[in-house]
Amino acid sequence: MTELRTARTPTLEIAYAEHGPPGGPPVVLLHGFPYAPQGYDAVVPPLAAAGRRVIVPYLRGYGPTRFLAPDTPRSGQQAALGKDLLDLLDALAIPRAVLAGYDWGGRAACIVAALWPERCAGLVSCTGYNIQDIAGSTRPAAPEQEHRHWYQYYFHTARGRAGLEADRAGIARLLWRLWSPDWAFDDATFAASAAAFDNPDFVDVVIQSYRHRFGYAAGDPALEAIEAALAAQPRIAVPTIAPHGASDGVGPVEGSAGHARYFSGFYERRVIPRVGHNPPQEAPEAFARCILDLPAA
Fold it and tell me: Which helix (H) or strand (E) holds 128?
């Protein structure tokens, strides 16, 4: 990653890296949990070489990104992630950008694409439509899927919060292995991203995120209007490509097979063989190609 910059929004001082020509068409690359912007290190060069202005931020609760006020709720709810992305575009005076991400980052990108489509020139969202159906979260899934969410249920408990506080890197490394069984990442690769988990708000943001999505924690009152809009499961009209790793250990590939119903414009699903939950790091060329192949909005 290059030297970090910061952008001040109404809520955060967001740390980000920027690459490529400043006047190029902007692309924002958004990481997930438990990952970091370093996951895009091999995605950035082909995009910059293609003339794109590439912005790679740390999400709230990660790396050098910080809350401005001590009394702002340390929320990781989906509305917070979407609003942070919208605020970042405003802070950088970017009227419209391609938005690309996975896991939490893919959710933020989907939210902006759905609610503020005029700000999104195209969408790359791993595993397809990532906006949470919180009202439907009480419906049990098949047992085979329920066991993959063990970490979420763990985080619902005081024991899980204490476990994350005590060994955030250990939990993250286990999830990397479980979610990407064909990816032989080394210690240095993991360590480069794990440094981002040392943020003082990491545990609070993560725990609130996994509790809120099941209705077990209140959201930030300032974000209620956004959550209400997301409850309708809004369709996405911007051009979208949805890569999905065929070996994804938390979101199996069949899960996105019917997601075309959530999109009203161009939509293409791409299954990437022998890739798990982290396509930008496991298959950077394929991920970059998804961005470059997006049709003009």
Answer: none
71-123 pLDDT, tens digit per residue, is 999 999 999 999 999 999 999 999 999 999 999 999 999 999 999 999 999 99
Locate tokens 């694409």: which residue? 113
CATH number of residue 110's parent domain: 3.40.50.1820
Q: Is residue 297 part of a domain?
A: no
248 contacts 277 by C-beta, under 8 angstroms? yes
Name the average pLDDT for the chain: 97
Distance separating alpha carbons of residues 239 and 123, to the nearest angstrom: 6
Work out whether strand 5-8 and strand 12-19 pair parallel, antiparallel, or are unpaired.
antiparallel
Provide the domain count of the chain. Answer: 1
Rounded-to-integer distance, Cα 250 and Cα 107, Å: 15
Give the domain extent around 34: 5-292
pLDDT of 1 above 50:
no
Name which of 108, 112, 58, 76 is nearest 213 in CA terms: 76
| Block residue for tokens 């959201």 | 219
Answer for the pair 19, 48: CB distance below 8 angstroms, yes or no.
Answer: yes
- For residue range 144-191, list pLDDT tens digits in order: 999 999 999 999 999 999 999 999 999 999 999 999 999 999 999 999
Tell me the CA distances in angstroms from 296 to 54, 215, 266, one per residue in order. 17, 38, 10
Q: Is 70 left (phi over 0), alpha (psi -120 to 50) or beta?
A: alpha
Residue 201 lies in a domain: yes
